[in-house]
Amino acid sequence: MELSIVTTLYYSSPYIKEFHQRATKVAKKLFRSYEIIFVNDGSPDDSLEVIRAIAEQDPAVIVINLSRNFGHHKAIMTGLSHARGDLVFLIDVDLEFAPELLFEFYQRMQNTKADVIFGIRKKRTDNFISNLGGFLFYPIFNFFSEVKIPKNLTTVRLMSNRYVKNLIKHKEKQFIIAGLWELTGFRQLGVEIKKKYKGSTKYSIVHNLSIIINAITSFSAKPLVYIFNIGFFILAVSIVFILYLIVKKLFFGIPISGWTSLIVTLWFFGGLLIFFLGIIGIYISKIFIETKKRPYTIISDIFTKNEEDHTKDNSARIRKKVGLYYSNKIIMFGTSSAGVDWNSKEAQELRFEQFLPLFTKNRTFSLIAYGCGYGELYLYLKSRGFSFSFVGFDISKEMIKRAREYLPTDPSVTLVDNRKKLSQADFVVASGIFNVKSDVSQEQWKRYIISTLEDINSLANEGFSFNMLTSYSDYDFMQESLYYGDPCFFFDYCKRNFSKEVSLIHDYGLYDFSIIVRKNER
Question: Is this structure's pTM higher than 0.85?
Fold first, then answer.
């Protein structure tokens, strides 16, 4: 995929058709393959219906429907996390900025080799509220924050794939996307562009003020430092003044008076104290929200005409990412449990033990280890007295290389790194291959798991088994890069789609579960 165009929808119905036509025309002139991703951010109008009708006719259109309105910036990040293009063009759908800017941005990127080309408005021509918000935001934010945002920055930007991959690694729930753009780094160049003025804005003065406060407290700790400095200064002045009053009373006999000054002082410091507590409270609330580790959006549905091709393409990208991850693990830790990302050999073998009810000891059977690692499962089953032929498949070429060195020479053992070389076997098992999702979204990873299970099912004649980290794990120990599956969902999915004979095992002392699917009663 050469290009991904990403935009969001919120009260956008009047603009969608024209935007789609113009964006499509530009993309076709510059690239052979492209996609246009529309993220519906819980729009109350008929935006979803309009874009779905377009998606049914245009296979390049992908519609991501969020479960509710989460906000513009979070919807943008969701769209970027699904973008597959070598280049990603981000632009609002309302046509305030022309989709044809892609021509200029692409040419500038080709000439400069920058990772990001972004739009800057030379002059603000909005109404008073928008102009006031822009006038206040940039100097105040840049004063407080170490991350400096260019003045009059726009949403419109053309980005390289490597930049986008690093941008979506930011997982905080409270953020200003302009700050994340700058924080991600790489070489970024601004281009002056013109905005088509629509004459209205959804942002009030109060909303603009809240944006400034949220931006500052998300990217800077300076307000807390200033609170300390001001507090220290007031304390120092107070001590000096108290000493002055004591000296005045004791040595000169001058009485201390001033009811009015006392009340004013109390009001001043009372208000100052409440203000400071409010600032601290904002930071504490952000800590509270971040520690909950809630997703910043929830996807209700994804629509595309070529859904099968879209899923396959995503799966290919994920497999490449997973293969690289485990190749690095085996290189770093060698043929050990850590080399396949397990905590210990005992935990590794305990997971293998859950597969045993799948097999039959009174006959020889054929087995595929789907994600075989360095082949430890083969040795484990041999030690348990099973007779079988073994095909180890792994998407990491480095894993297969190490497995060939680690396992004894045996004509019953075949090791492959190409899915096309696999043929059906009696049983298929997959241990640990669904745990590490890295920076892949929850929804994409879930789809990847389901497509992989369907592939495993197609290879297994008599049954298969797999394990996965459980969503019932202790919340405090969950990691963002890992996937915690709902055992009830996957049990139900296997029972509805693969076989009536399904077992769920969730009581063996580890934070995961195993599922056994039997196709034939024995």
Answer: no
Can you read off the two tokens belonging to residue 110? 């080709």
Nearest-angstrom CA–CA distance, 449 and 318? 10
| Cα separation values, 37 from 6, 214, 276, 317, Å | 5, 28, 43, 17
Give the Cβ contact number of residue 196 at 10 Å. Answer: 10
Which tokens is 322 given? 């997973």
Give the whole-angstrom CA distance, residue 215 versus residue 207: 12
What is the SS3 assignment for 365? strand
| Whole-Å CA distances, 225 to 233, 269, 278, 280, 518 | 12, 18, 15, 11, 63
Write the CATH number of the domain with boundaries 306-518: 3.40.50.150
* CA angle, residues 25, 27, 30, in degrees to nearest 5: 110
Long-range contacts of 346-352 (CB under 8 A, 24+ apart): 347/510, 348/376, 348/431, 349/380, 350/508, 350/509, 350/510, 351/431, 351/432, 351/467, 351/510, 351/512, 351/514, 352/376, 352/377, 352/380, 352/381, 352/431
pLDDT tens profile 465-504: 999 999 998 877 888 889 999 999 999 999 999 999 999 9
Task: Report the candidate in 425, 436, 429 with the shortest Cα–Cα distance to residue 354.
Answer: 429
Q: Which fold has domain 3-220+295-302?
A: Spore Coat Polysaccharide Biosynthesis Protein SpsA; Chain A (3.90.550)
Report, as an integer, the average pLDDT of 418-430: 94
Closest CA to 83 of 158, 23, 32: 158
Residue of 279, 317, 294, 309 whose CA lies nearest to 81: 317
**Burial code of 80-96, b = ≥16 C-beta within 10 A, e = fewer?**
bbbbbbebbbbbbbbbb
Report how far residue 102's alpha carbon sits from residue 216's, in angstroms, rounded to the nearest whole number: 31
- Domain-wise residue ranges, the chain: 3-220+295-302, 222-275, 306-518
Q: Which two tokens stand for residue 252?
A: 């000169």
Give the Cα separation of 216 and 315 in Å (integer). 39
Q: Quick one: which of 212, 199, 193 has its CA closest to 123?
A: 193
Which pair of tokens denotes residue 472? 């019932």
> Among residues 168, 129, 175, 136, which one has the least CA distance to residue 152?
136
For residues 78 and 296, what is the distance between their CA atoms, to the nearest angstrom?
9
Residue 257 has pLDDT above 70, yes or no: no
